Amino acid sequence: MIPAQFEAKQAEKKWYDYWMEHKYFHSTPDHRTPYTIVIPPPNVTGVLHMGHMLNNTIQDVLIRRARLKGFNACWVPGTDHASIATEAKVVAKLKSEGINKSDLTREEFLKHAFDWTEKYGGTILEQLKQLGCSCDWDRTKFTMDDDMSASVIKSFVDLYNKGLIYRGYRMVNWDPEAKTTLSDEEVIYEERQGKLYHLKYQIEGSEEFVTIATTRPETILGDTAICIHPEDERYFHLKGKKAIVPICNRVIPIIFDEYVDMEFGTGCLKVTPAHDVNDKTLGDKHGLEIIDIFNEDATLNSFGLHYEGQDRFEVRNAIEKELESIGALSKVENHVNNVGTSERTKAVIEPRLSDQWFLKMDELVKPAIKAVLESDEIKLHPSRFNNTYAHWLNNIRDWNISRQLWWGQQIPAYYYGDGKEDFVVAENIEDALVLAKEKTSNANLKAVDLRQDPDALDTWFSSWLWPISVFGGMMDPDNKEFKYYYPTNDLVTGPDILFFWVARMIIAGYEYTGEKPFSNVYLTGLVRDKQGRKMSKSLGNSPEPLGLIEKFGADGVRVGLLLSSSAGNDILFDEELCNQGKGFANKIWNAFRLIKGWEVADITQPTSSKAAIEWYEAKLQKVLVEIEDNFEKYRISDALMAIYKLVWDDFCSWFLEIIKPGYQQPIDRTTFNKAIEMLEANLKLLHPFMPFLTEEIWQYIAKRTPEEALIIASWPEIKPFDEKIIADFDFATEVISGIRTIRKDKNIAFKEAIELKVMNNEKASTHFDSIIMKLGNIVDLTYVIEKVNGALSYRVKSNEYFIPVGGNVDLDAEIAKLNEELNYIKGFLRSVQGKLANEKFVNGAPEQVIANERKKEADALAKIATLEQSLASLQ
């Protein structure tokens, strides 16, 4: 027995288990054309949020449709080790247990990290199953799997041997909370309210002072020069002089360089080479001393004097007071400036000099620029992101790929001496030992004499290989799976990682395979609340995704998300959209129950049902063409809306109403079979969007073998259709709407049969007259050549329709009512035409106001003509 309502929770578990049991999601190479998607691997620390819901729903729509279209569909899932975020969580967990990371060996720490990952790492993938994601779970990858790590190490060694990776002492972005460097792209700049401190530096051997403005007074302890523009006449007399740094009383040179802007501030610049990238450039040019005043956690070191061990921000407040007490603080002003913060930890970034590993990008990036911006080999959807892509790649800098972490792939550089160049790079210690012996000519070197670089590689250096490494393409580029599935087809991700991940995967694809990694990139928008605010836990405006699924069903949530989503545009999410999705599911379920509830008999097919089937088959084909076009253009939301309208308006509201048998009457078998056929076609179109509901109905319609499951059925085939049938039906629906309006306005009950007289000035088709008669309860439809008196009338285009009133309507009252309305509209028209005849008004009013008045005039004239026609037919 079919339940009265669609029971989403029960259906979701039943059919997901069924799909898994029969391995519908699993893919192996065969004779079919592959369709491949690799999941943007969520952080192993992560749980499902609204962005994941949107992103993975779109991927599932694409993969399920590809499966229905006969492709060998393969969706590879997995997670990213997220070095900074995960290490921070493991360190915090250990600390809560009284264990410091510094007390552990690397191996001991990694054991804790892997234990933590094993316990919590699969959470988000399990949650994706509840959404209905049809990933090939047998292929699940983790960026720290042995084969994945081996791919990363092989990549590093290859790039080093090509001369593209080097070690350099550079100014880097330092995250003092994570205690690691970050790439430029991982630094988020925020406007913050701060202060501008005007400090007085005494000129050595005199009573003179120069004033310098800074936002960071604590860094004066690392000052090694004052810089002035060589053409600044105000300070010519200071050439060759020195100044004294307040508090630490260090004597520093006054140097002259055109780098200084004479017009900015006092024209004097303090130079702290260890803590500013531009100051470092000046320091190198003028041979200045470099004094680093910070520890790795941004507390002050011994150069901080009596502030040693204190946090930088505590020192800032304290040093302000000390400077004031010694008369070295001229004034303090409020000042807004951009502050760099860590994308992961939110800590304020410190510029820091450090030995790091870098990847040269200037040549590597060229094929990636060409693929997207010149050859169109890879398409971004929407294409407006090409500008962002171009800006990033045309201004790219060398990539800092080393991180001061243990969680991640350890850099395969092995040191055999104390010098900066005393190292070799190899995939393992055995190969490293061979290279070290060759380099040193020391045959007595042993593995224990080598020490591996302690740093780990940037997480993005791992994930940029994702489409290649998940199929083993780095370690064995000739393997069957890699040659079959690569390049992949579509990538669905957020524009916030267009550079971090998408561009880098394109770079890696061309570098290692000579091919693109994918053909299309669908860039989703951010999910925001209905007020346009970014969703966050702190604002309390981010719903719990699994709670939404519990409340509205997975299908309802999927539809709700996609109805509000278009590529690249932010989604203004409202729970009501999920409720709309749930309502849509109920509408389909009730339509199915209605059909299955009819008694079927071997009787003659009504003309109206035959006509309805001809129309719906044509309409289905027309919408199918529209759907295919939307998918081709990656308008996933538009594709869903086209199906939504087809099912809700055309199938449920028109088709089923036309073919519905009379009360307690059976339906003919031909029409019933066609109704089931049309329903099944609808289910195929809906399946990528609403997989659980559609499989449930599909399996209820008939007993199916596993080979006949909807998930592996065939997508409807596009066939020729007659546009005229669709146009004629649309005309007929307007006629029916007119009849219904008159019935409603004149209180003529539907059960009361009426006559309809037609002046067919349009020469409209009579093909759907049987439908007009059924849905209008018309007892007699005849065509006339002149107006019918004593009848209610209305128009559809130039066709005139007359309903003789008989004893159903008070003719005198109807004429009085029409005259009253006609007089009102004529009065309104005189008012509008009076305005338009006023030259002053026409010349002075905005163009839009004039346009509105002219529209009012046209509408009033049309209404008057209709009323006069109705009066004429009644008199």
Query: Do you know the CATH architecture of the domain at 545-721?
Result: Orthogonal Bundle
The counted number of beta strands is: 31
Write down the CATH class of the domain at 545-721. Mainly Alpha
Provide the β-strand percentage band.
Answer: 15-25%
Number of helices: 27
Within CATH, the superfamily of the domain at 545-721 carries the name: Isoleucyl-tRNA Synthetase, Domain 1
Give keywords.
Helix Hairpins, alpha/beta, Isoleucyl-tRNA Synthetase, domain 2, Isoleucyl-tRNA Synthetase, Domain 1, globular, 875 residues
Protein architecture, described:
It is a single chain. This protein has 875 residues and is of the alpha/beta class. Among the domains are: 180-350, Isoleucyl-tRNA Synthetase, domain 2 (Alpha-Beta Complex); 545-721, Isoleucyl-tRNA Synthetase, Domain 1, CATH 1.10.730; 810-875, Helix Hairpins (Orthogonal Bundle), CATH 1.10.287. The chain is built from 27 helices and 31 strands. Strands 7, 8, 9, 10, 11, 12 and 13 form a seven-stranded mixed sheet that branches. β5 (165-175) and β6 (180-182) form a beta hairpin. α9 (366-373) packs antiparallel against α10 (385-394), α19 runs antiparallel to α20 (636-659) and α19 runs parallel beside α21. It starts with 7 loop residues before the first helix and ends with a helix. The mean pLDDT is 92.
